## 1
Amino acid sequence: MTGMLIRSAFWIGAPRAGQEETFAAAINDELVPAMRRFPGVSSVKALWPVGRENDPPHIHCQVIVAYDSHDDMQRMLQSKERAALRPRVQAAMTLFDGTVSHIDYRTV
């Protein structure tokens, strides 16, 4: 199989009351730009729902990270840059009531 790999992080839940803008800024202005500098990463973007249909899970934000290969994704997962960003991700989690989970995809 060929195609890019996509690692998608789902922030399921909602920001804590009064933390909506701070949470969005943490994702948009801090985490996404830092992730764009990770080794092996082709692109990073945050998706913010503007509409919902058929009662989907409450995904407040989805962060999509693209890689050219499985090796690139593994290089990012094992990188010192990712490890260094973990405390900032944990800080964002304190602003959020919910969970973060990941799904890895291959594009066709």
Note: The beta strands are 5-15, 41-47, 59-67, 96-106.
## 2
Amino acid sequence: MNTFGLYIKQLRINKRLTQSEAAQLLGKDQQGQYISNIERGQSVPSIEVLKKLCEIYSVQESEMTQEYMNLCHRKVSKKIKSEWERCASSPSGH
């Protein structure tokens, strides 16, 4: 489950913006694909985009940063677990 994407989506919905409108405010494509990709977990926004989203969605940077850090932590944890399991299952053990 992509909780960061859901968080971003809920912020957008609370502001009564479509994905296209949010993308336009960010200066991204007008079709909303950029926002859709973030909300579905297909892409991770840059820090610059996160700052702009804070302004657009009227959210404290500290709140957005915490949500973003949680996402990064989950991604790193998943990668480490995957690597650990791969190494553990290899014949040499590393």
Note: The helical segments are 3-14, 19-26, 33-39, 47-57, 61-89.
## 3
Amino acid sequence: MLINFKFEIDEESYEFCCEIVNKMIELFYISHEEATSRVNSQWEGQIIKGYECMVFHEDEEYWDNAIYYTDDSYWWMPEMQDRLKIKAYNPEKGRY
């Protein structure tokens, strides 16, 4: 399935972003549409190209969590796992 991202990407970045979408579906049991919308909301209008891009300084798992949970959730800390907060998602707008 071809994903329409709302930011400028090259082939390598496209594959990386597709992996983020697919992993979000697997980890959080969300729809393909929601995962794609969350990724688009994160980087809409930006240029995500080349390995020097800051996006590539982290792996897919980092981005899955950073995009899905609020900034104050501290999802990377084991003791915070019972206090995670999900970013609100508005399916009518396709955004969180």
Note: The chain has three helices and two strands.
